[in-house]
Amino acid sequence: MELYELTIHQAHELLRKGEISSVELTQALLDRIVEIDNQIKAYLTLTPELALEQAREADARIAALRREGRLDRLNPLIGIPMAVKDVICTKGVPTTCASRILEDFIPPYDATVMELLYQAGAVLLGKTNMDEFAMGSSTENSAFFPTHNPWDLDRVPGGSSGGSAAAVAADEAIFALGSDTGGSIRQPASFCGIVGLKPTYGRVSRYGLVAFASSLDQIGPLTKDVRDAALVMNVIARYDPRDSTSVNLPTPDYTKALVPDIEGLRVGVPREYFIEGMQPGVEAAVRAAIEKLAELGAEVEEVSLPHTDYSLPTYYLIAPAEASANLARYDGVKYGLSCSDAEDIWDAYRKTRQRGFGPEVKRRIMLGTYALSAGYYDAYYLKAQKVRTLIKQDFDRAFERFDVLVAPTSPTVAFRLGEKVEDPLQMYLSDIFTLSMNLAGICGISIPCGFAHNGSEETSELPVGLQIMGPAFGEEAMLRVAYAYEQATEWHKRRPALITEARN
Amino acid sequence: MKLTRAEVDHIAELAKLELTEEEKEKFREQLSAILEYAEMLQRLDTEAIPPTATVLPLRNVMRPDEAGSSFPLEDILANAPQAEDSYFKVQAILE
């Protein structure tokens, strides 16, 4: 096994035993990136010097603890190389949001999650590609270039955290951070055959996360297995007084939830999540996974979330409304692109934003501005907020009866690059199973549950994701089901064949 | 719900976005389609339903009123497109 193929917990074992150093591990990842990222294009910025410096520090910390005989104090993330979505502020390292308007932006501070990860000893390899300002489901909305799915280079990795998902799937990072506003961690994790966890709203600090839709955004991990997701959550799920929506609850040890036993756990299957138009291969894989849960002893029963159909239009009014307010700050004054060839300051604002934002960002600013404008606020924005209440109540009622809910992560496997760029509504449908959780503020995880062909074409098999949803602050039940399923199956061990061939 | 060109112009001005003629026509069509789709929300009776702006119980968050440290001026101005002395520089707002 190559070093870059390791999970966090595997690499940690070797680091703890002194069999490898963080510098060796980090160098292996950096070499891997040089070798294959020209095919995948997962990274926007690489930080090799910083990474090796952090790796040397990690090695020194490990050596010091070894001398003191206190290796039990090692954080499992010490010396582990990671990739970070380019929407999370990194001090001294460019943070572009894959937008021309922030192309030259270098944050003067670290996001809280970066402080926590650096304290734990994690190593930053670089910043990953994404849909501009996290608006999209394919990473094709990056202002710089698209990212390719490691399982089939002609296909999208999903989005908006497509760079992070592709980096982990292609072994270009041991783990990655993403952000999820409507599915942006879970859907790319599903498309790339890895694990992606969206924490409960308020569980992880948003301080230093460039805002898209403030009532929906959460940062979370993309990893190679469920244990790794729990290990990252142990570090980043912390109360932060700098985020007024951070909830002051103690952080559980999420690895304690990793028991391969779900005997008697109540699992609900929302019938509205099995729709017409869903790819048959996806449905088959997810149905088989649900049967597996029953085999493992879970009490599986159907449940109804009656307002599911309304979540897409609700989301596409609320998220753009919040985005249009958040993105008003890009005026070319304090940071970012600025057009100086303007008649007056108003003209400068208009030109700066015209040149700085891509089509999807403009589309959402327009949509959000409309939904908030005088005369339409009640009919669109307020109406959507009321329907949001109904959607949340559906989940509240379901979680009175069930510990977790399970469903597909996305109705399809990864689609072709270019397939949906001209039809925004079709692109939005890719998130139809994930965005309700952001509206309700609850947690969700996508784990590999099989492979399927894309429709009738003679194509390669592509990963399918099983989505497990937990109630607010119910990450532990969700992780327990995810872990039990993963331990009983082999899907998470498959690697993209294309990459293996490219290596040999 | 079909948007008119005048409405598109109005929204663009509210959002301080300069748009090309093609962009205006494209957005007019695409936004109309999205809004038409959103019409389905009107089917629901929400008369008695309170709106959800945030899923968390609403509360004000206060910190002790104590002076803390702030970012060094040069760090903050380092990203400014135009700066002079300790100021961000913009075009004249009042002539």
Mind explaining what this structure looks like?
The complex is a heterodimer of chains A (504) and B (95). With 504 residues, chain A is an alpha/beta fold. Among the domains of chain A are: 3-258 and 488-503, Amidase signature (AS) domain (Amidase signature (AS) enzymes), CATH 3.90.1300.10; 309-383, no CATH class. Helices cover 39% and strands 13% of the residues of chain A. Chain A has an eleven-stranded mixed beta sheet, with helices on both faces. Chain A is globular. Chain B is mainly α. Chain B has a domain at 5-43: Histone, subunit A (Orthogonal Bundle), CATH 1.10.20. Chain B is 35% helix and 4% strand. In chain B, strands 1-2 form a two-stranded antiparallel ribbon. In chain B, a hairpin with a 2-residue loop joins strand 1 and strand 2 (87-88). Chain B starts with a helix and ends in a 7-residue tail after the last strand. The chains are: A alpha/beta (504), B mainly alpha (95). Chains A and B meet through helix 9, helix 10, helix 11 and helix 12 of A and helix 1 and helix 2 of B.
Attribute tags:
heterodimer, A: about 500 residues, alpha/beta, Amidase signature (AS) enzymes, eleven-stranded mixed sheet, globular, B: about 100 residues, mainly alpha, Histone, subunit A, two-stranded antiparallel sheet, 3 helices, about 35% helix, flat
Write the layout of secondary structure elements.
The complex is a heterodimer of chains A (504) and B (95).
Chain A: H1 8-17, H2 22-40, E1 43-46, H3 48-67, E2 81-85, H4 112-120, E3 123-128, H5 162-169, E4 175-180, H6 186-192, E5 195-198, E6 218-223, H7 226-236, E7 266-270, H8 280-295, E8 299-303, H9 311-326, H10 345-356, H11 359-372, H12 377-401, E9 404-408, H13 424-428, H14 435-440, E10 443-452, E11 462-470, H15 475-488, H16 497-503
Parallel strand pairs in A: 2-3, 2-4, 7-8, 7-9
Antiparallel strand pairs in A: 1-3, 4-6, 5-6, 5-10, 9-11, 10-11
Chain B: H1 5-14, H2 21-38, H3 73-77, E1 83-84, E2 87-88
Antiparallel strand pairs in B: 1-2
